[in-house]
Write a structure and sequence with these properties.
The complex is a heterodimer of chains A (386) and B (276). By secondary structure, chain A is of the alpha+beta class. Chain A is built from ten helices and 18 strands. Chain A folds into three domains: 2-38, no CATH class; 56-277, Rossmann fold, CATH 3.40.50.300; 307-380, RNA polymerase II/Efflux pump adaptor protein, barrel-sandwich hybrid domain (OB fold (Dihydrolipoamide Acetyltransferase, E2P), Beta Barrel). Chain B has a two-stranded antiparallel sheet. In chain B, helix 1 (2-18) crosses helix 12, helix 2 packs across helix 7 and helix 2 (37-78) packs across helix 12 (243-265). The longest helix of chain B has 42 residues, at 37-78. Chain B is globular. The chains are: A alpha+beta (386), B mainly alpha (276).
């Protein structure tokens, strides 16, 4: 305690000089967090049955939730650690939103258990869970100002008025909305509404922030801006983020770890790099990016070759390289890169992506050339067919 | 426009009548004498009844609201695909005549009726007597009976606008409130209540006015001391044959209601009310 006090005193003058005010706020939150999580009053009656576990914030154990003819999840197990930016990636209908709603408490699993900070909260109602959700369409309260929207959670938890004011003020600063505190949601742009939704959840200092396709409703430019905003905010507050998305770029660029869901089942969990370079299945391979899947042997095995690993040249492969003779079918200029679709002599469809600078000159549709690659750049899939 | 023709013109026609005097004690013929005293006389004579009318209507509306809010909430958020059917069930009683319903209540609330039987078997008779809800262990011919009848009459007019207003509340707002640590009661007070206020306004308009002017319930369910203002007008006109005073009383009632409506509509038009 004494150590922390000294640390804060040292940090205090810096706050006035640095524009990186998030640091101070993150620190305050880190101070707040243990209090929120240990004081029953601020926990708003959270069911506390088991001793808290180590660093696991969200744990799903063999969770199943089935609907009549709707997407559900099947025997899903997941463990998300404190401070992680974790993404659930999958096509629509894969069960990722259901997973989020199971964690938030809007759905109850038919079997399995949901652990939050080591406590079994499978049957706890949403308002007794130490997590907060950013809704896909934001679900802001239309009758309340930005300030009152953000203050909704702290007021529900009956915090002292002074603390509510302080927390709301700070959170609005983190999302850079302090000037708009008096506005109503309908007077805000989509990006601003998004920030309010974020602030409204963050102000509660949740153990984990759940985000349901938070950027889907924004136009592409704004989406890119908000993406880096999300990363910045997560860094500043240090809270676990669980992001649900169908946008692979979003998941790859933001996450520390991500999981690919397919038809209600977990396909693979790992770092973005792992999943992109060494996917276990064709589903993961194709969902994370353009992929060339080359047949391997006669047992139905498959080898993944990312398009950017393929080199196009007029000369045949050198020693240690592999190669295929192919004909250019389609050229798509994309600015920094060119996407080339080819058809090999043995009737395989191939995609190559290269920087504009790296391609042989005079590339034309119908041209015959060599596709070459280093075998070390390819990856053999464990479970070949989806 | 048609409101002007159908509502305002007949009322204007009442103005000269309300300033007249009857020609004889046995007919409805009157002569215009500009007698303003009609007003002070009816106000003096019927002030208490006027007050009683509005308090009965207010109590019935309050009881109705306590019933209507959970009902409307359940229909909107828990009704699912049964929603149209449930709304139909709410409206169904209104399709039968006021008269028939009031008479049905007389047998339900009568001395040998099921309601008193239930009260008795629960041993509540003495307690309710003490509270003034029952009079000498009887329910019929008490204010309570009138209010029960009124509540029954006005319930659909409260429920329907509330359901319509709640249709405009995104159910995700309730989820968001729950996610932000609000329990069921807080979700209602902070989200459903403020967002249903337009429906509440419309419901109050639609229920308070007919309730204050109701004739049937007090006559069939109430005792001689539970008469309401419409009974008084009825009596003045058809029994005492005092058409000018009846007209004066009608205009007073109308003025009071208009003021109430005006307060309700202050700052917004009828169009904004979510009338079903």
């Amino acid at each position: 305690m004494a150590l922390r006090d000294t640390k804060r005193q040292i940090n205090r003058p810096i706050r006035h000089w640095w524009t990186f005010r998030g640091q101070a706020i993150a620190e305050q939150w880190l101070d707040l967090l243990p209090r929120v999580l240990t004081e029953p009053a601020t926990l708003n009656g959270c069911v506390v049955a088991d001793p808290p576990g180590a660093a696991e914030v969200i744990g799903l154990r063999q969770v199943s939730r089935r609907f009549d003819g709707m997407a559900g999840v099947e025997a899903l197990s997941l463990s998300i650690a404190a401070g992680e930016f974790f993404s659930l990636l999958g096509p629509s209908g894969c069960g990722k939103t259901t997973t989020l709603r199971l964690i938030a408490g809007f759905e109850r699993p038919q079997s399995g258990s949901v652990l939050l900070q080591g406590h079994d909260l499978t049957d706890a109602p949403p308002h007794r869970r130490p997590v907060n959700l950013v809704f896909q369409n934001y679900a802001l309260f239309p009758h309340l100002s930005v300030w009152d929207n953000v203050a909704f959670g702290p007021r529900s938890q009956r915090l002292a008025e002074a603390e509510i004011r302080q927390r709301v003020g700070q959170t609005l600063e983190v999302v850079r909305l302090s000037e708009l505190a008096r506005r109503r949601p309908h007077q805000l742009s989509g990006g601003q509404q998004q920030r309010v939704a974020l602030a409204r959840a963050l102000v509660n200092a949740p153990a984990a922030l759940l985000l349901d396709e938070p950027l889907a409703a924004l136009d592409p430019d704004l989406r890119r801006t908000m993406r880096s905003e999300l990363k910045r905010i997560q860094r500043e507050v240090g809270i676990t983020f669980l992001l649900v998305t169908h946008d692979r770029e979003e998941a790859l660029s933001l996450s520390d770890r991500l999981a690919v869901l397919h038809q209600g089942r977990l396909e693979q969990v790992g770092s973005p790099r792992q999943l992109y370079d060494r996917p276990r299945s064709a589903v993961v391979a194709t969902f994370l990016g353009a992929a060339n899947l080359l047949p391997e042997g006669n047992g139905g095995g498959m080898r993944l070759l990312r398009p950017e690993r393929l080199r196009l040249s007029a000369t045949p492969p050198e020693a240690g390289e592999r190669g295929l003779r192919a004909r250019v079918r389609e050229l798509a200029f994309q600015g920094a890169t060119v996407e080339v679709r080819l058809c090999s002599d043995n009737d395989l469809s191939l995609i190559a992506i290269d920087t504009t600078a790296g391609l042989p000159d005079h590339l034309r549709v119908g041209q015959e050339l060599w596709c070459r690659w280093d075998p070390a750049d390819s990856h053999l899939l464990e479970t070949p067919s989806p | 426009m048609w409101l002007l023709g159908l509502y305002v013109l007949p009322l204007l026609g009442l103005v000269p009548l309300s300033l007249s005097e009857p020609l004889s004690r046995f007919g409805l013929d009157t002569v215009f004498t500009g007698r303003v005293a009609n007003y002070s006389e009816v106000l003096q004579a019927y002030g208490p009844i006027l007050l009683r009318s509005f308090s009965f209507a207010a109590i019935a509306t309050a009881v109705g609201l306590v019933l209507a809010y959970p009902l409307a909430f359940a229909i909107r958020f828990r009704g699912g695909r049964w929603q149209p059917l449930l709304i139909g069930l709410v409206v169904l009683p209104s399709l039968s005549s006021f008269l028939v319903r009031a008479i049905a209540w007389t047998s339900l609330l009568g001395d040998n009726g099921p309601v008193l039987g239930l009260v008795e078997s629960l041993g509540l008779t003495d307690g309710l007597n003490g509270l003034g809800v029952l009079r000498d262990g009887r329910l019929l011919n008490t204010p309570t009976a009138v209010i029960i009848g009124l509540t029954n009459t006005l319930l659909p007019f409260l429920v329907l606008p509330l359901v319509v207003a709640m249709q405009r509340i995104d159910p995700r707002l309730l989820e968001a409130a729950a996610d932000l640590h609000a329990g069921p009661l807080r979700r209602f007070i902070r989200v459903v209540w403020p967002l249903s206020l337009p429906g509440l306004g419309a419901g109050l308009l639609l229920s308070l006015i007919p309730a204050a002017g109701d004739v049937v319930n007090p006559r069939f369910l109430g005792g001689p001391n539970d008469r309401m203002i419409a009974n008084a007008i009825d009596n003045l006109l058809l029994v005492q044959l005092q058409a000018p005073r009846a007209a004066a009383l009608t205009l007073v009632l109308t003025a009071l209601i208009t003021v109430a409506v005006g307060l309700q509509l202050r700052g917004r038009g009828l169009e904004e009310l979510p009338l079903p």
